[in-house]
Design a protein that fits this description.
By secondary structure, the chain is an all-alpha fold. The protein is 89% helix and 0% strand. The chain has helices at residues 5-35, 41-86.
Length: 87
């Protein structure tokens, strides 16, 4: 089944939202204390937010690329196999 653009965007955003909270917690309670990085919680939110925006864009573009590209590839393979069988 082919996803619509809106479905792709919703799936990616849900996935990224979960990743945002996991990353924020990991960054705040593990990375900052272990590496003694002097940043405030607001700065942690900003940094995580920037990477989240990038992740949404990357995830959406990759999802649309593979959704379109894989359907075309399968269609071409089937067309090639049917042509060989018919000849």
């Amino acid at each position: 089944m082919k996803q619509t653009r809106l479905e792709s965007l919703l799936e990616v955003n849900l996935n990224i939202a979960l990743g945002f909270f996991v990353s924020l917690l990991f960054w705040t309670f593990f990375i900052v204390p272990v590496y003694d990085i002097p940043v405030s919680f607001v700065q942690n939110l900003e940094i995580t937010g920037w990477f989240t925006v990038l992740a949404v864009a990357r995830g959406y573009i990759m999802r649309r690329f593979f959704n379109a590209g894989l359907h075309k590839a399968v269609r071409n393979i089937v067309k090639g196999v049917c042509t060989k069988i018919g000849s």
